[in-house]
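Practice set, problem 2.
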Amino acid sequence: MKVIIDTNFILSCLKKKVQIFEEIDNLNLDAVVPEQVVNELKKLKENKKKSYADRELCNLALQLIKHKKIKKIKLSKVYVDSGILDYVKKNKYVCIATLDRELKRRLVGVRFVIIRKRKLEIE
């Protein structure tokens, strides 16, 4: 089963020192990252208004995605949340890794990956 990972989830895992991609492998899930998320990470990395630590976190996330050869998908919508909603309608067997409460509320009947005690779990 695929798990779509959003920007905030990746950054939160890195902040909490969760080995995100190893944990996803332990759950027997295939990680995919939308191209929009990669683009958002690149923009945040270059944003001088963000703290140095936040920019370095974005840089680390991009390096991990590249190093681990995480598959990228192109969502049909410009905005990540709308694209994820559309993707889920077309692909039934998918998990979502997000911390966005509004997105979770809108995704009925979908399984989520959550962070619990520096580990990932399927909810």
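Problem 2, part (b): a different protein.
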Amino acid sequence: MIEAMEQVHMTEDEVTGDFAAVLRPASYPRRTISECIVLAERREKERGYAVTLDPEFAADVEEIICDQQPWNPPTWD
């Protein structure tokens, strides 16, 4: 879920000051695979049934995983 950013008002002196105290990378909540599995199991119990993948979609995902190649980024000379 994307939340609206809070509006910040700054004076000209504050803008020319130390930005490191104000700016920082955005952080989004992330889950590990094990957390996703636990969440899926909990939701399965709540619903009373398991969600299953469409066989064609599952085959497409399997193909993508099997065909992965290492990424070799270009060098910047």
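Answer key, part (b): Helices lie at 12-15, 33-47, 55-66. Residues 28-68 form one domain.
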